[in-house]
Write a structure and sequence with these properties.
Elements lengths: L1 H14 L2 H10 L7 E2 L1 H8 L3 H14 L2 E3 L5 E3 L1 H7 L3 H21 L2 E8 L2 E8 L14 E3 L4 H8 L3 H8 L14 H14 L2 E4 L6 E9 L5 E10 L5 H27 L1
Antiparallel strand pairs: 1-3, 2-3, 4-5, 4-9, 5-6, 7-8, 8-9
């Protein structure tokens, strides 16, 4: 009995609790590696192969992972179905989508919706316009808060502890125009709070500018941000900013109206 307990404790110390290990297996999948072999999952997650074999089998039975036609593992539909229940994802998206579609139709540019998750942003919707500039973002993708318009909006209104952590860096330089000076970022955040919208010029790609505005819930708390990503300089920020702010206000109103209906 003593030996068994010692082995159990040793396994927990070396590999962590079962749930944590299962989550590490799922985290092995990424944008550039959406399908993996069992050995690749084990190596990328740091979970021993024998343990990975057992946990992946359980995840496959539940539907969190599935195999493609080549026998490689990929994220399963069941996991997407559960994720769709997240209130900051589809619930927000459902109320925001009509405004995003209108904004996309008017500007014919990329329109994006994002929320803050810890010290990063997660995109929950993206629409591509007919004259849209190329972008690197995708639904479900994570980005640093200082590099995008929606990220700057959410950082400007984030708790002070979050702001300080983000400003400690490091900053990934995507283009020569990417902000990497925490002093300049701090000044930009103050300007965003004053004027009510953010402008991220050529920070992700050198031919695009993002204009973003905050979305508030019924209590007035900023819960998301939306943006237009357009060709740099065309149309100008002075044209895009009022459109973006009006759309964000419309989503905020829709969220508040939805809250009032639920409480009556």
């Amino acid at each position: 009995m003593t030996v068994t307990h010692a082995v159990d404790r040793s396994e927990r110390v070396s590999t962590g609790p079962v749930v944590a290990r299962a989550l590490r297996l799922l985290e092995a999948f990424s944008d550039d590696r959406p399908t993996l072999t069992l050995s690749e999952i084990s190596r990328r997650s740091g979970v021993p192969l024998s343990t990975a074999h057992r946990l992946v089998a359980e995840l496959e039975t539940w539907g969190a992972v599935e195999r493609d036609t080549n026998g490689r593992y990929q994220v399963g539909l069941r996991l997407w179905e559960v994720g769709a229940l997240a209130p900051r994802g589809p619930g927000l998206r459902e109320r925001a989508l009509p405004y995003l579609e209108d904004l996309c139709a008017v500007t014919r540019e990329n329109v994006q919706l994002a929320v803050r998750e810890d010290d990063e942003i997660v995109f929950v919707e993206r629409l591509a316009g007919t004259r849209a500039v190329g972008v690197l973002t995708r639904v479900g993708g994570r980005w640093a808060m200082t590099a995008t318009g929606v990220g700057l909006v959410l950082l400007a209104h984030a708790p002070a502890a979050v702001v300080e952590r983000v400003l400690e860096g490091p900053f990934t330089r995507h283009t020569p125009y990417t902000l990497t000076d925490p002093v300049r970022v701090r000044e930009m955040l103050a300007a965003i709070r004053t004027r009510g919208y953010a402008v991220s010029e050529r920070q992700i790609t050198d031919d695009a500018t993002s204009v973003a505005a905050p979305i508030r819930d019924a209590s007035g708390e900023i819960v998301a941000a939306l943006s237009v990503v357009a060709h740099h300089g065309n149309p100008p920020v002075s044209v895009l900013a009022p459109l973006v702010r009006t759309s964000a206000a419309g989503v905020s109103h829709a969220l508040a109206a939805g809250r009032r209906r639920r409480t009556h």
